[in-house]
Design a protein that fits this description.
The protein is of the alpha/beta class. The protein is 39% helix and 16% strand. The protein has 9 helices and 12 strands. α2 links the parallel β5 and β6. The radius of gyration is 19 Å and the shape is globular. The structure holds zinc ion.
Length: 303
Amino acid sequence: MGRVLCLLYHRVNPVQDDIYHLTVSPDHFEEQIQYVKSHFPVLRFEEDWTRSNRDGVVITFDDGYRDNYEHALPILEKYHVPATIFVSTGYVDSSQEYWWDEIARVLTRDVDYPEQFELRDSLYHYIWDTHSLEARKEMVRSLHWILKMDPDVERANLWLAQIRTWAGIGNEGREENLPVSLRQLQELGHSEYITIGAHTVNHRSLGAQTKEGQQYEIGASVNFLERVLGRKINTFSYPFGSSVHFNQDTFGVCSQKGIIKAATTAKGLWKESANPYVIPRVEVKDKGGKEFEEFMEECWRLG
Ligand SMILES: [Zn+2]
């Protein structure tokens, strides 16, 4: 019985400023796909892996960035390589960036900022020093953690609006960081190489939410995709993906919605005994040539 190595990508893009290190350059992505294609069978995430007796590789993307359509799709088509894209549906067709990119955008620009930012509402009170870029990056990290664990999207939107006003910055996202448009999502969905899976609506930790909250996040993202793509959605990936970000309720809700397999960010290889709701993946960094080959060899040593 073969093992399966699921690779995790987020972005394929020539952008330079990527404070989250989520981006692989198009040149490196092409080298990586060529290498994978010439060394391993490339399987689809949703297919039954127990039928394969060789080690295989699966390509996955999280979030649904527009660059998956612009830069990754042409390369996947050129090499006839299938991939699954897990989309956070609340961002489809938005002119605003994903919340983590939005906090980075408003706080790391090369302009003068006030000396500090005070956030106060009925639950939270923080004061952040904002005089230097380093200090503001610290604020980005701190806000990232709060937003990821707090599912109250309205509260977060109020904060973001407050921070934009404070910084004197509008809400239009940077073109290169935007999520897919509806038309791009539909084109991706119609490509014979792409499977679309769900990745919640708002991209918050599911592990921090009530069962009802999870039912909304999982259910509404699956329903939206089924409606706009006109087909059944049966795969899912958990935002942030480590074991604190999902729980037994998550498995129950996924199963009720007809999800057959769900991807985590637990580093490892899939083996036949694995729980289908805890599929391990390994995140790919911006590497080419020898460095990528070494990375792949290390992946197979994970067991
Ligand atoms: Zn994600």
